[in-house]
Amino acid sequence: MSALSPRSLRSASPAIAALVLAASLTACGSGGSSSSSSSGGSGSITVGLITKTETNPYFVTMKKGAQAEAAKDDVKLLTAAGAYDGDNAGQVTAVENMIAAGVKGILITPSDPKAIAPTLDRARQQGIVVIALDTPPDPQNSADALFATNNLTAGKLIGQFAKVKMADKPAKIAMLDLTPGVDVGVQRHDGFLSGFGIAEGDASIACEADTGGDQAKGQTAMENCLQKAPDINLVYAINEPAAMGAYQALKSAGKDKAVTIVTIDGSCTGVTALNQGQFAADSQQYPLKMASLGVDAVMNFAKTGKKPSGYTDTGVSLIAATAVAGVDSKDASYGQSNCWGS
Hints:
Blueprint: H1 14-26, E1 37-40, E2 46-51, H2 57-73, E3 76-81, H3 88-101, E4 105-108, H4 113-125, E5 129-133, E6 145-148, H5 151-166, E7 173-177, H6 183-196, E8 205-210, H7 215-228, E9 234-237, H8 240-252, E10 260-265, H9 268-275, E11 281-284, H10 287-304, E12 310-313, E13 317-320, H11 332-337
């Protein structure tokens, strides 16, 4: 999940979003956050990519990775996205339209892992290979395979970093989370706690709030946390949008220099923020790799009949503004050169 998240179209209803997706896929699409389009090569193998949104830079990058690999392999790529993060109805419609279009495989980042599972099961019953990218469905075996960051590791890395960074200073932590029950958010949260060496409910956790991975919600959450605990000195943020929202709230309160922010994503924008002192550490993930591996796996299935299976860890690196003892990290220069797999 990742960098500065859009807020436009969040008010659109799932039904409207689904209708827009259906119309746009049939028309082979125009622009917009719920649009669908066709790109890549012109070969006989067709692959579908369905992301959470069309405008979040993380998923834009993922789409670019899929398009580049599809063009290289002469694969026709159909793409679609929900109108907002959480738009399950839009993703369901996109899957159904891709089944009708005769795709060999569907790559998807589920917005609602549990709600999308029955639709993915129907696609697999039609002989279509389904690969989850970034976020597993629930249950995970509703997809044939998962290509994703090890989110527990990503959280643990920034937790370990934060523990050393805080040294002997008593920590007052704001936990800016995702949404209840979503595996990505749970794993990153748990990883941070493990890396920092504390358990859920520890006295050092001054505030917990859900942000949906959104910058505006992250800012509001941080403002509320500061009202509750003005002495917060460490922020864990589920992703860069939430982290940037937290930074803006802290800056407005004149506290940005006194608080350490750690997060997960590793976008070019996020690494720049780290280089400018807004973030202290960022676990970098690689959506370009997820997408390119997914396209290749579908192409291989189409040619050989061999389905991909299980979980493929697409890697994570800790990017730190300043290294700390005992925690492996890369500097901002490395982060900029490798942001999101570029």
